[in-house]
Amino acid sequence: MLGLMMNQPLRIAGLLEHAAKWHADTEIVSRLPEGYIHRYTYHAAHQRAKQLANALLALGVTPGDRVGTLAWNTHRHFELYYGVSGIGAVCHTINPRLFPEQLVYIINHAADRFIFFDLTFLPLVERLAPLCPAVEGWVLLTDRAHMPAGSAVDLRCYEELLAVQSTEFEWPVFDENTASSLCYTSGTTDEPKGVLYSHRSTLLHSYAASLPDCFNCSSRDVVLPVVPMFHVNAWGIPYMTPLNGCKLIMPGPGLDAASLYELFEQEGVTFTAGVPTIWFGLLTFMREKKLQFTTLKRMIVGGASCPPALLKAFDQELGIEIRHAWGMTETSPLGTVSTLKSKNLQLSEDEQFALKTKQGRLIFGVDMKIVDDEGQELPHDGVAFGDLLVRGPFIVGDYFGTAHPGELTKTGWFRTGDVATIDPDGFMQITDRSKDVIKSGGEWISSIDLENLAVAHPAVAEAAVIGVPHPKWSERPLLIVVRKPGADISQEELLHFFEGKVAHWWKPDAVAFVDQLPHTATGKLLKTKLRQDFAGYAFEGAR
Ligand code: AMP
After folding, report:
1. Mean pLDDT of 358-368
2. Per-residue model confidence (pLDDT) at position 528
3. How far is CA 72 from CA 121, 181, 368, 511, in A?
4. What is the residue-wise DSSP string for 348-382?
5. Which terminal CB of the chain, N or C, has fewer other CB atoms within 10 Å?
6. What is the C-alpha to C-alpha distance for residues 25 and 205, in angstroms, rounded to an integer?
7. What mean pLDDT value characterizes the chain?
8. What whole-number percentage of the chain has pLDDT above 90?
9. From ligand 1's centre to the CA of 540, what distance in Å?
10. Cβ contacts of residue 52 below 8 Å, gap of 6+?
11. What's the average model confidence in pLDDT over 317-341?
12. Is the CB of residue 26 below 6 angstroms from any atom belonging to ligand 1?
C-alpha cells in the first residue's frame, strides 16, 4: 500500500522560493571581483534568478544541457546555482585552480554549451576558448561598465542579459531525480571524473547539512562559506542557507586572512567553513595582530585532515567551536562531522579533544563500513583499519559519461579510497588514502598521523610522509619537511620529537628538508609527485 501524502518532487528552486517568501528581507552580501561590496535580499535574488532563467531559455538552453561556471563565491554565482538548475539544466561548476589541460578536458567532456565566468578569469578564458570550440557563448559575470574594451573571445555581458528579461517565471516541476549540478573530482593521477548531483540528492544533503550535529545553522546565523562554490558546491552551503533563512556572506576572491577577518567582523559572521590551510593563515594573522572574533561562534574544517594543533588553537586561544568534517566530491560532500555525544562529555578534556580530532560520526543519509583486502568487514574498535566504503541517497552511483555503467558501485557500496578506523561510538578516523598508507613489515603505518605530529613541532611549517621501499620491511616512512622561516632544526632533533608519541616502529627512518611541497589544484599534498621526486631514495644502511 502506498502512503497518501502529496507527491511533490524535491527541487532546488523550491529552496530559493521558500527563502524569498519567508526570509524576504534577509541579506546576501558579496565582495565582488570588481572590488566593491554588493548587498541585496533573498527576495531580490529570487527575482534575478527568474530573470536568469528567462535569459537561459532565450539563449536556447534546454533541460539537461550543461552550463559551466568559472566563478568565485558571489551573488551572481548564487543566481546561477538556482537559475540553471531551476529550469532543469545542469550547473557545471568548474574549478579554475585546475591545470589548463584539465580544464579543457573537463569543459569538452561535459559538453558545456555556455560558460559564465568572473572578470578574474578573463585571461584564462582567452586561453581556453580556442580549445573548447563546442562552447557557444562566454558570459562575463559583470556589468557593462566593467566589460573589457577588446577581447579575442566574443563576450556577452551578464547584467545586460538579465536586464532585458522579466522577473515573471514559474519554475517547472519535474522528476526529483533530474540532474542538477556537475562537479569534477580533481584527480591527481587519473583524468578528472564528473559527479552528477540530482535535485533529490541536493535537497536531502541540504537537510543533512542543517542538522545540529552537522552545521547546526538557523535563521539567526550569518554564514560565510570560505570553501569555494567551484568545489563540491561549497559543501552545500548555498543550498543550506536559503533552506534555513541564514544571512549569507560571499567573500568573492578575497580569501586572504586580512580580508576574511574584516568581513567576519563587518557582517557579524557566526558560522564559517573551509580547509585547514585557510584557517592556518587566519590563525597566524590573528596571533600576529593580537585579534579576537566578536561574533564568530562555530567553524567547520575539512577537505583535508585537520592537525590537532590547529583545532586546539581555535578552541583554546580564540574560543571558537571548531568541528572537523570529512567528505568527498562523491559524497555531496558531507559524510561525517566530529561532534561529541552526551556520554562523551564525561570524558577528560584530553579524551574529548582526541575525539574531536577524528573525522567524526555519520550524518543520517550516509552509511559506512571498513573492510580488509578480501572485503571482509572489520570491527568498530577504533584500532582496526581498512578501506572505507559508503552508501546513501547523496553518494555517487556512477560517474558522468562512464564507459562501464554500474561498475563503480556494483557491491552496493562506493569505495572512497580512504583508509579508516571506526570506534565503538561510531567516530571514524581517516588514517590515510589507500595509496598513501605505508606498509611496513605487514603492518600499516598512517602517514597522516605522522604528518600531524610533525607539524605540531614549532620549527615545522609543513610536512609530508611517504613510504620508501626498504629491503627488509618492504616500506619505511620518510618525513619530508619545510622548515618555518628562520627556524633551524636537525634530522635528529625532529626524529627525537616522535619518541613516546607513536609506536617506536612508526617513527620515520629519515627526514628530508625541502623548500616547498607540491600541492594539487585544491591544495592537497600531491604525494604522487613526491613519490616521483624521491623515487631513487634509499635510507642510509638500507641499500
Ligand atoms: P575531494 O573530492 O577533492 O573533496 O577530496 C576528497 C578527499 O579528501 C577524501 O577522500 C579524503 O582523502 C580527503 N579528505 C576530506 N576531508 C578530510 C578530512 N577531514 N581528513 C582527512 N582527509 C580528508
Report:
1. 97
2. 86
3. 10, 16, 33, 38
4. -HHHHHHHHTS-BEEPTT-EEEEE-TTSPBPPSSS
5. N
6. 25
7. 94
8. 82
9. 34
10. 79, 80, 82, 83, 84, 161, 162, 165
11. 97
12. no
φ, ψ of residue 249 in degrees (nearest 5) = -115, 120
Q: Is the pLDDT of residue 441 over 80?
A: no
pLDDT reported for residue 188: 55
Cα–Cα nearest to 428, from 397, 465, 387, 376: 387
Alpha-carbon gap, residue 143 to 123, rounded angstroms: 18
pLDDT the model gives residue 542: 62
Please say if 330 is a catalytic residue: yes
All cell numbers assigned to 195: 559527479
- For residue 444, pLDDT over 70 is answered with yes
Q: How far is CA 183 from the centre of its chain?
A: 11
- Closest to 279 (Cα-Cα) out of 254, 314, 312: 314
Which residue has the least CA distance to atom 17 on ligand 1? 304
**Is 265 assigned a catalytic role?**
no
Q: Is the dihedral of CA 507, 508, 514, 516 positive or negative?
A: negative
Helical pair 257-267 and 276-289, crossing angle rounded to 10 deg: 80
Give the three-class secondary structure for 419: strand
- Tell me if residue 195 falls in helix, strand or coil: strand
Q: Mind listing the pLDDT tens digit for each residue in 144-157? A: 999 999 889 999 99
Active-site residue (options: 185, 270, 357, 416): 185
Q: How far is CA 50 from CA 82, 156, 172, 193, 401, in A?
A: 9, 19, 11, 31, 30
CA dihedral 448, 449, 450, 451 (to 10 degrees): 50
Is the Cβ–Cβ distance between 448 and 305 less than 8 Å? Answer: yes
Cα–Cα distance between 309 and 251 in angstroms, integer?
26
Distance CA 387, CA 374 (A): 10
Q: What is the pLDDT of residues 476-527, one digit of tens each?
A: 999 999 999 999 899 999 999 999 888 888 999 999 999 999 987 777 788 8
Q: Which residues pair with 447 in a beta bridge?
A: none
359 Cβ inside 6 Å of ligand 1: yes
Which of 17, 330, 451, 462 is an active site residue?
330
Say yes or no to pLDDT of 418 above 80.
Answer: yes
pLDDT tens, residue by residue, 34-71: 999 999 999 999 999 999 999 999 999 999 999 999 99
Instruction: Please indicate whether residue 181, judged by its CB atom, sits closer than 6 Å to ligand 1.
Output: no
Active site residue 185: yes
Mutate to test the pocket of ligand 1, among 310, 328, 431 (most ligand atoms within 8 A of CB): 328
The single residue listed with the C-alpha cell 554564514 is 223
**Centroid of ligand 1 to alpha carbon of 328 (angstroms):** 6
b/e burial code for range 46-84 (CB count within 10 A of at least 16 → b) = bbbbbbbbbbbeebebeeebbbbbbbbbbbbbbbbbbbb
Clarify whether 50 is annotated catalytic. no
